[in-house]
Design goal:
heterotrimer; A alpha+beta; B alpha/beta; C alpha/beta; B: alpha/beta; Ubiquitin-like (UB roll); Rossmann fold; 4 domains; 7-stranded mixed β-sheet; globular; C: alpha/beta; de novo design (two linked rop proteins); 3 domains; 4-stranded parallel β-sheet; 17 helices; 8 strands; iron-sulfur (chain A); Thioredoxin-like_sf (chain A)
Chain lengths: 157, 645, 420
């Protein structure tokens, strides 16, 4: 169940859209922000808000890279593996992240803090290799910098 | 009219025709998966590649999405086009399982056909095949996602064509998945069409899986007998059992599709409990013995009580042939009464509708699809004529306004695949002089004055009949001034009945003597009749049905009558002199076990002969024109032939 | 020279509304609203020779001219800021430094096209750019430069942000329209083209951020001025080049159209990194062919790069040195495209993973002679897809087989990557 205030604001968002569907991505993102991931319950709530069936929401949810339909950690690490980051040896950084977090790609750390996901070009090519942690972009990564970032992110609310 | 050349054949087609359809018009089948005549163009599978050698467009093109234009020179056999098509098949086979022998679609699989046709036989790809989890989709359809070739036909049918919202496409790239949000029975009453529309074995008919191969089936063109729409079907039979029923194209009636009732509701055909033996006073007897007894009983009753105290009772389940001959039996019995309806209200409405409709005002399906407004009058469309809901949906999608008049409390309104406005009376439907409007109602139990009011609106009319052959029953009721049985009984005008596929209610039966009963199903009448004559169903007989718009359609015998071989009682295996074993028959029998059923009209004809009448032929006189009706054609509207007058 | 896009940029922050105005910002808008007809604005853009900066390079003025002006119902303008082409980050850099050129450019485009409501479609991850735009739009509204009755005229123009959730295919204009409508972002079939039937079935123009951001300067300074910015006679304007890979100074720079490849790398980027040797580069984002050392002095313009067998594309220059294995680089690119396929049409959905499997084997020393044949078949036949994603994916593979076939063969013969 979502709080009444969130529900109201989402209803307002849907009402202001040209068609209800136009607000679908916004609604999914807001519900994901609330639950941490887009739970089955959230899909059903989104459907009710948008006047769609849960399946119709699922059709959209499963298309987008940044909508999570499975549980994720408190913060999701998206590490770029596209060409510019490849040039900057992102493979090493990805391996370092895997080793450090003790998870494979797609895995969530035992403490539920981080989920590690590869992602497509983040538009940080000038600062490759790059990743984002909980939506915050970081570039020019080195193992040392990764250590610092994870430590800081772990304690940042 | 664009003129083009396809494989050296000059072709002229209507503007807007695709190259694929133009080729088809001269007998060239360009391989395709995503293309389906009933669905919007997707151009997704890329199999229908052809090469344009000259004209306004050049090079490799997808023929399904390319409108034919003047001066095009098309090659379907150019090496480049062949290579493209071979690659598409190779791409699809990267992940499709190589296990046709254990797939229920094997033998009727478009992918199988085009894989062979495309010459793909060697696997070059060294990667693994991707796999999916299947979903439970209900008791009708089995789901096997690994076989999917992502042509998107299913979702385009289910959502776009049929208006379902609980099945669709999820994921992207190679993870595209066609299914439901969560496991569960598909909600659309048209879900069964996924079986027909899937070009491979993702959706198969769970009610008949692994019973037989396509080439084992006995087929014949048939007409669904569940409601008065008269959808065209093709029952697939094997060893005296109707295994599956699939839709058969008729653009004037059902297009390509059928509803789930037409497809899945078939258990009664194969029911081992069906009464299959003629009986006399509770004991099995020979068919002729039973007919003789029936004739004798009729003659005796007439002698003792007068012919006018006897009624020959049919129903809307009878074929047109049965209905015609039923009246002749009454005549042969010395002027007995004839009834096609029990209920006075149903008869009145049915008759009024048949009288009101004429060639100009009786809506064609196209009229529904192209209407600007449609009024559904106190009608449970999903019950009385589900396939018309899809025609209404087409109009709705094209912008028509739909009104539901006095129908809010009807149960199936929630399931209607279109949005509508509820109003209380027909007067509240805003239309001017009819326009391109259609009124759809159920004719049975309707006040004839109300029906007449609808007819005077200038709108096209759909008046659904009570029962599959109600229109024919109305015509014959009119012709023979037949009365409803309930009224005749109440007025004590009838003391005894002979029933042919008639479901006389228990309340009437208590005041009646049943001399004989002919039917293919059990019921109260059968229990009361001393003489029982088993008849064939529509699946086992030839006949004619007239649908709600007065369209006569021929159905053909799709299999012989008799008990299905599967589950056959071992008593049929042996002969009188041999012991019963559990092995299939070693002894050749002349008779099909349980195969004594006869077509109702033929039983009637035999009765007429026994009663001293002339041998009869049902489709004579004014019905002669229907004798040559093509079972694979579109049927004929008898209103046009003047037969309805 | 005073190039139009980056001239307002501050080193480490976004330019303020006042700074932008002081430096001549919104002069184009004022000029247009005080005496130019919508047609004049469109003509200026047409005359300027501005070409689509998103990658395809189609003449912007011509694209606008396809929009029928006599149809009833609304027309739409969408700014495509779904910048997800690997190696491309120019729109982000532009918007993180200056959202106003885009806002002014969109307002001008709306004026020219008779659009009342326009959208900016922004990819996931560009929240900073989105925030700048949101603030900039508020400021412009307050100043009467956007919203109701712009500059006191009868023209009202509304701008809306649409924040996406991350998919490369949304950058394809018809997929973008579906995404904006809240449908699955599969591309639509063309025809009908968006200019006739696009967003909610209305006539729609979709332009890239950089394209629209050029419009104010064109209107303010005239088409001739813009044309004159280019170094080559056929060219027009400037281009944002965003360089990554083996250069000393990876940067997004604005340079005149016609600047040579060598000048971009040696001049703006300070040369190759660590004294490495230039082996090849991808000049315009992931879906373009390789350029080689012989192209060092190639003027970077749409037609010149096309003549050299590649595309100027988005201006995302990815530089490889002699230590880079181009089989692996191509594999990386194909992996991206395979992952980002929408799954609609067969060749893209199935063909790209096929190519990926083959390149993976070759890179890992398990390649076979037949593989090159199969790859070439894909290069040719993946052109017949529903949209341009797979043909784009084939561009680097085509380049690899054309220019570096020896390197591929070396992998197969030596049964290993020769660079490892």
């Amino acid at each position: 169940m979502i709080p009444e205030t969130l529900k109201k604001s989402l209803q307002a968002r849907v009402a202001s859209a040209i068609t209800a569907r136009e607000a679908a991505v916004d609604v999914m993102k807001e519900l994901q922000a609330h639950y941490g991931w887009l739970t089955d319950e959230a899909v059903q709530e989104a459907a009710a808000l948008l006047g769609l069936s849960p399946l119709q929401v699922e059709e959209l949810a499963t298309f987008y890279e940044m909508i999570y339909r499975r549980p994720v950690g408190k913060k999701v690490i998206h590490v770029c593996d596209s060409i510019s980051c490849w040039c900057a040896d992102c493979d090493k950084i990805i391996q370092y992240l895997k080793d450090k977090l003790g998870v494979g790609l797609g895995g969530t750390t035992a403490d539920g803090m981080f989920t590690l996901l590869p992602c497509c070009c983040m538009g940080m090519c000038g600062d490759s290799p790059a990743m984002s942690v909980g939506g915050v972009p970081y570039g020019r990564l080195t193992p040392e910098l990764v250590d610092e970032i994870l430590e800081a992110e772990r304690h940042k609310v | 009219m664009p003129k083009l050349i396809i494989d050296d054949i000059p072709v002229e087609v209507a503007p807007g025709t695709s190259v694929l359809e133009a080729a088809r018009s001269v007998g060239i089948t360009i391989p395709h998966f995503c293309y389906h005549p009933a669905l919007a163009i997707a151009a997704a599978c890329r199999l229908c590649a052809v090469k344009l050698l000259d004209g306004p467009v050049k090079g490799i093109q997808m023929s399904c999405a390319l409108p034919a234009q003047d001066g095009m020179v098309v090659s379907t056999t150019d090496p480049e086009a062949l290579k493209m098509r071979a690659l598409v098949i190779e791409w699809l086979m990267l992940n499709h399982p190589h296990d046709c022998p254990v797939c229920d679609e094997g033998g009727e699989c478009l992918l199988q056909d085009f894989t062979i046709a495309g010459g793909h036989s060697r696997r070059r790809y060294q990667g693994k095949k991707r796999t999916f989890q299947n979903q439970y989709l209900g008791e009708g359809i089995h789901h096997e996602m690994n076989r999917c070739i992502e042509c998107y036909r299913c979702v385009r049918f289910y959502q776009d064509y049929a208006g379902g919202t609980d099945f669709g496409v999820m994921g992207s790239a190679g993870r595209v998945y066609f299914g439901r949000f969560q496991e569960g029975a598909l909600e659309s009453p048209f879900s069964g069409n996924l079986v027909d529309i899937c070009p491979t074995g993702v959706f198969t008919d769970k009610t008949g899986r692994f019973r037989a191969r396509y080439w084992d089936y006995q087929f014949a063109p048939s007409i669904c007998q569940h409601c008065s729409v008269g959808c065209n079907t093709s029952p697939q039979n094997f060893q005296r059992e109707t295994i599956k029923i699939v839709g058969r194209r008729n653009d004037q009636v059902n297009g390509w599709f059928i509803c789930d009732r037409a497809r899945f509701d078939k258990g009664y055909l194969n029911d081992p409990q069906r009464p299959r033996e003629p009986r006399l006073d509770g004991a099995t007897c020979g068919y002729d013995v039973a007919v003789d007894a029936a004739a004798k009983s009729i003659a005796e009753f007439v002698r003792n009580n007068g012919a006018d105290k006897l009624a020959l009772v049919g129903s809307t389940r009878l074929s047109l042939e049965g209905m015609i001959v039923l009246a002749q039996v009454a005549e042969a019995a010395g002027g007995a009464k004839v009834c096609y309806f029990d209920d006075a209200g149903l008869q009145q409405g049915s008759l009024a509708a048949a009288k009101l409709l004429h060639e100009e005002n009786a809506a064609y399906v196209k009229d529904i699809e192209q209407a600007q407004w449609i009024a559904l009058h106190a009608l449970d469309l999903m019950e009385e004529g589900p396939m018309l809901a899809l025609a209404v949906r087409k109009a709705f999608l094209a912008g028509a306004q739909i009104f539901l008049v006095a129908g809010d409390t009807l149960p199936a309104c929630k399931a209607l695949p279109f949005k509508y406005t509820s109003v209380e009376t027909l007067d509240q439907v805003p239309f001017e002089g009819g326009g391109k409007g259609v009124i759809i109602c159920g004719a049975g139990s309707k006040d004839p004055e109300l029906l007449a009011e609808m007819a005077s609106s200038g709108a096209k009319l759909v008046m659904l009949q009570p029962g599959p052959n109600g229109f024919a029953a109305a015509l014959l009721t009119q012709q023979h001034a037949a009365g409803p049985l309930a009224e005749l009984v109440a007025a004590r005008q009838v003391q005894a009945v002979v029933c042919f596929e008639a479901d006389v209610p228990q309340t009437l039966l208590s005041d009646l003597e049943v001399l004989a009963n002919a039917d293919w199903r059990r019921g109260a009448v059968e229990a009361k009749a001393p003489i029982f004559l088993p008849t064939t169903t529509w699946a086992e007989s030839d006949g004619t049905a007239i649908n709600y718009e007065g369209r006569a359609q021929r159905f053909e015998r799709s299999r012989v009558a008799g008990l299905p071989l599967k589950g056959l009682d071992p008593k049929y295996y042996g002969s009188a002199t041999e012991a019963v074993t559990l092995h299939p028959p070693r002894v050749h029998r002349k008779d099909v076990p349980g195969g004594a059923e006869r077509d109702a009209w033929q039983v009637m004809a035999q009765l007429i002969e026994r009663l001293g009448g002339e041998p009869v032929e049902p489709l004579t006189g004014k019905w002669r024109a229907l004798k040559s009706l093509d079972p694979e054609g579109e049927g004929v509207r008898i209103l046009e032939m003047g037969l309805g007058e | 020279m005073d190039l139009p896009l980056f001239r307002h940029n501050r080193p480490n922050r976004v330019v303020t509304f006042d700074e932008y105005r002081e430096e001549g910002g919104f002069e184009g808008l004022k000029k247009a609203f005080s005496g130019m007809s919508p047609n004049d604005v469109q003509q200026a853009v047409l005359d300027s020779g501005l070409r689509g900066r998103g990658g395809a390079g189609f003449a912007t003025g011509r694209k606008w001219s396809f929009v029928p002006r006599d149809l009833p119902g609304p027309r739409w303008l969408i700014c495509n800021c779904d910048e997800m082409e690997p190696g491309t980050y120019k729109d982000r850099v532009l918007l993180e430094h200056n959202p106003y050129s885009l806002i002014e450019g969109m307002t001008l485009a709306c004026y020219a096209l008779g659009v009342r409501h326009a959208f900016i479609f922004i990819r996931k991850g560009y929240e900073k750019a989105a925030a700048n735009l949101a603030r900039g739009m508020e400021e412009a509204k307050k100043a009467g430069l956007l919203g109701e009755h712009i500059l006191g005229s009868e023209h009202s123009i509304e701008l809306d942000l649409h924040l996406s959730a991350g998919r490369y295919i949304c950058g394809e204009e018809t997929a973008l329209i579906n995404a904006l409508e809240g449908k699955r972002p599969n591309p639509r079939s063309k025809p009908p083209f968006p200019a006739i039937k696009g967003l909610w079935q209305g006539p729609t123009v979709v332009n890239n951020v950089e394209t629209l951001a050029n419009v104010p300067a064109i209107v303010a300074n005239g088409a001739a001025w813009f044309k004159g910015l280019a170094l080559n006679p056929e060219g027009a304007g400037s281009k944002l080049f965003c360089v990554s890979g083996s250069v000393k100074n990876r940067a997004c720079v604005e340079l005149p159209i016609g600047t040579t490849l060598g000048d971009i790398i040696d001049g703006a980027c300070g040369g190759m990194r660590d004294g490495k040797k230039f082996k090849a580069c991808i000049p315009g984002g992931a879906s373009t062919q390789f350029l080689k050392p012989e192209h060092w002095n190639l003027p970077m313009d749409y037609d010149t790069v096309a003549k050299a067998g590649s595309r100027l594309g988005s201006g995302g220059v990815i530089v490889f040195d002699e230590g880079h294995c181009l089989v692996e680089a191509t594999l990386n690119l194909i992996n991206f495209f395979a992952r980002e396929s929408c799954g609609w049409c067969t060749p893209c959905r199935e063909g790209l993973p096929y190519v990926k499997e083959i390149l993976t084997r070759i890179e890992n020393g398990r390649g076979e002679e037949d593989d090159i044949t199969i790859l070439r078949e894909h290069v040719k036949y993946l052109n017949y897809t529903f949209c341009a994603l797979a043909p784009g994916a084939m561009a680097p593979l085509d380049g690899l087989l054309r220019d570096f076939e020896d390197e591929v063969r070396d992998h197969i013969v030596k049964k290993k990557c020769p660079l490892k």
